[in-house]
Amino acid sequence: MVKAVVAGAAGRMGGRIISIIEETEGIELAGAVESESNEAVGRDAGETSGIGRTGVKIVSGLEDVMKNGDVLIDFTFPDVTLKNMEIVSRLKKAAVVGSTGFSGDEVSDLKEVACTVPTVFAPNMSVGVNVMMKLVSQAARALGGSFDMEIVEAHHRMKKDAPSGTAMKLGEVLAESVGRNLSEVGVFERLGMIGERKADEIGIQTLRGGDVVGDHTVYFYGSGERLEVTHRATSRDTFATGAVRAASWIADKQPGLYDMLDVLCLS
Length: 267
Fold this sequence. Notes:
Layout: E1 2-7, H1 12-23, E2 27-33, H2 45-49, E3 58-59, H3 62-66, E4 71-74, H4 78-91, E5 94-97, H5 104-114, E6 118-121, H6 127-143, E7 148-155, H7 165-177, H8 182-185, E8 186-187, E9 202-208, E10 214-221, E11 226-233, H9 237-250, E12 256-258, H10 260-263
């Protein structure tokens, strides 16, 4: 039985992850963590998730509960995740990281510590999105440099980071598939007299509004034809289910950095 600890337990994703854990065989909730100022601290994790009492209280300190767990599932914020990963590394546990909004330096820091313990790090845990990653990679290689590639993403009005971590990952996949570097060819805003589109550009545009869970479309624009690959999430359960699946998979793996393509055997 895999024992999971959920960080960000009182958040929307944390609550859904706790619910999915309770429904999934082979994994159980061993701990739930929130920031010290969160009003949910001290309450039963199941009650805050809407599934009834689980006997696991939400606490503000990760280290003590992590000692009794096998894997951390972290959907918090970059600075919190990095601190949590230091504890996971010190205790030689495993981790699933779904936090987004990392800066370049923070990603480097995360990857450095993640390599010391078994870690799944993915901006999107949805099975469908990760299949999409594989599909657009194959499409980019097949279409080569003759098609213009653009990405449009939409999320709810409360999302704090932009573009989404998933959109950025899709951009990296496209760039790598055709031998480019996203940091050099990514275009995140177009306004005014910008001139003709450069052949190697990869555009990533952001929409925010309402309660959109997450939409991503990759466009391949050719001469006389267009290919579109779209994924639309209608429930956060898609991400929560993927995260729990990743936690069950990573618990007994060797130290190293993995992603959802590894979990799904699509690498």
